[in-house]
Amino acid sequence: MKKTYKINEIFYSIQGEGANAGRPAVFVRFSGCNRRCPFCDTDHESGVEMTAQQIRQAVEKASGGLKTMVVLTGGEPTLQLSEDENLFPDASDRRFIAIETNGTGAVPSWIDWVTVSPKEDIPLDKLPRFNEVKLLFDETRLDYFQLFNRDGILAFIQPIERNGEYNFVEAIAFVKQNPRFRLSVQIHKLIGIQ
Question: Residue 9 is inside which H or E element, if any?
Answer without folding.
Answer: strand 5-14
